Structure formats: structure tokens, C-alpha cells
Amino acid sequence: EFQLTDDGESTLFEGIEEVIPALSVYAQLIFSQNSRSNILRDLKKKGLLQHFVDVVGYEEVASARQKPAPDGLLACLSKIEPLPRELVFFIGDHETDTLCGHNTNVVLAGRNSDARIINIAALYGSENGATSRWNIQPDHMVNHPRAIVEYIQTY
Length: 155
Prior knowledge:
Blueprint: H1 2-5, H2 16-22, E1 29-31, H3 36-45, E2 54-56, H4 71-78, E3 87-92, H5 95-110, E4 116-122, E5 140-142, H6 145-152
Parallel strand pairs: 1-2, 3-4, 4-5
């Protein structure tokens, strides 16, 4: 409830405002444990909203089914039906993001989907090697937002 009354503007990591438009050739969605309305407001203020298909916030996922459960990421994927028969890059900065991507892959495999989540750990603002204690390792780690574009372009 606090998030819904918070009118403070979020701060973006250096380089994000260039990376988002660079990735606009792909369907971009946000799945966050922050409020959807706050995210939409901030994206609009920063002139970035047009680059996103949609945003799934915490209020759209049952509290018992938040990350690392796959429900929110599956909700995002449902917004780009038919689901791509290819890779879906999921970028997150917490272990729960990587676990969510892993759990979503389990569901997708059970559905015989050809789609696969590639987990990218965004470690800018974190210590290098911060994932060493994570239960599930990401597929790739980046230390700067520009490295996301460089990595995705290798596919």
C-alpha cells in the first residue's frame, strides 16, 4: 500500500536510458515487485514508456505467488502471445529474479514450449561475484547496462 501512495521518482542506473531504446526491436516488458502505476508514471516522465509492451507490477500477482514463483513472468509472456518460439531474455538484479526465470523455464518445458528464458543478472550497483552464493546461477552476468545489449546481440 505504501508504494501506491509514494510519488517519489525512481533513479535509473547510468546507461539505462540509452539501452531501452536500443532494445526496442524486441518486445520489452517489465515484471517488478514495485507498483505498476509507479513504474508507468516514471517511464512516462523519462520518455521511455513507448518502448514497453506492458508492465506487470506486484499488485497483479497474488502475494503468495510473487517471485520466485513464475506467475508474474508468465503474465508478462501472455502479453506477447503467441509466445515466441525462441529465447526470452529476463534481466534482474536479485537472486529471486534468476529463480523466477528458472521456475518459468520449468513451466514452459512442462507445456512443451519452445521458448526458453535466458536469465541475465544485472550486477551494476552490486559487488562482482555477488551471485556466488545464489542457489541457481544466471545464464549471464553484466556489470553495466550497455553489456546487456552487447550480450543479446550475440544471439
